[in-house]
Amino acid sequence: MNSKISLLAMTLASVMGLGSFASANAANETDALAKAIAKQEAEIAALKQQLKLITEQQQSQSAQQQVERDTLTSKVEQVAGEVSSAQDRFSRFSFKSYGTANYTSDEYFDNVQDTTPERRNRFDLERIVTEFGYQFTDEWSMEVEIEYEHGGTGSSLEYDGFDEFGEFESEVEAGGEVIVEKAEIRYRPSEAFGVKFGNIHLPIGLTSILHKPNQYLTVQRHKSEAAMLPAVWNENGIGVYGQVSDFHYQAQIVSGLNSEYFRTYDWSASGHQKRFEHVNGDDLAFAGRLDYGNFKTGSAVGVAYYYGNTSGNRHKSNKLDVDGAISIVSVAGAFVEGPWILRGQYLYGTLDNTDAITQANKTTPGLRPGNFAQLGSESQSFFVEAGVKLDSWFNIPVTVFANIDYSNPLMAVETGTATKRFENTWSSLGVNYFPIPEVVIKAEGGLHQVAVASIPDTNFFALGVGYQFSL
């Protein structure tokens, strides 16, 4: 009995021991599992934190990249705007240029009494002209034209009112000169009306309109006009202009001429005040023109008129107490159709009180006009040029032409008898060759006649090359 009780007790004790062991093992496994779960949860939390940081970094990088993209886009747009603005400014700028260089072989007379001519061969870089223009707005623009004559600079003349009771003094630094032929500002709100002011071209004489080498046929510009008017006449002033249908008009108020430098051989041409540093404006002048058609592009007819006093612009104002009113009328026409070119012009002018002007010029210190003092109370000149473009029949860019220039600055005088020494006629034949449209090579030969029986006829020959282009 006791032994059974002992065995039962041992069995119970064994079972209870195993239960305690199992219970201890279970507790240990639960703790380990909890720790593992906690560890995994910590790792998951860390991973979530890392993921959050990565997401935030990616979002930050994306925002930074977007800012960089926006900045780059802004810079590209800014540069594109600057380029567009620069292109727009450049499109408003214009540049033109033309020039001529000549070789001449002429027979010259030493003075007005000489009747034995001497032949001289000469080279001349006649002129280089640059024109700058800018279109500020659709209505406002400006243009400046600078001419370099005869390959040199520095010829000037000034009036000293104190030295030796008032002298004209010349200072020559080189063989030619640089002059501003145009410096004008234009306001043109419509095709029919515009205003220009500054240093402007006068519309008197066709040379003021057709002065580029491809616009006239002769090697040099027309001698007849140069013997009566300033070449490509420009003055300070203001003018209105415009086009109505096929009519072109101009009307100007400008600075006048100075009769102190009127001369027998070129009438009013030397009276242009460009030789002085300052332009006297005590006497103003009127210039007007009306054309039907366009002389620059084809057929046209036109009339022009100039009127102004010249005594008030003299430096020695006490030498002349009468008006020296001058008037000039121009009638011109052009027929340019197909291969045919025909142009002509007639100029007629009158000058008041020529005897008084002549006497004042003779006795003004420094002028020394000598035999060139006599002035015409009436003056006239004309030219006619006719050409045929051979490329209408042959594959050669050549134009042949004939030309007549006539001038008589002493058509009539106030008193006495007018000398015929300065009545000249030039007759010539020539050719223009255009190797490319921007370049012309010219040759011309002809006869020069003076309306004095004792002076023999002479002949001349000239070669020239000219260019013109625009940007």
TrEMBL record:
Q: Which InterPro entries match?
A: Porin_dom_sf
- Which residues does UniProt assign to the signal peptide? 1-26
Q: Which residues form a coiled coil?
A: 30-64
SUPFAM superfamilies the record matches = Porins
Tell whether Coiled coil is among the UniProt keywords. Answer: yes
**Organism this protein belongs to:** Shewanella holmiensis
Which terms are listed as keywords in the entry? Coiled coil, Signal
Q: What is this protein called?
A: OprO/OprP family phosphate-selective porin
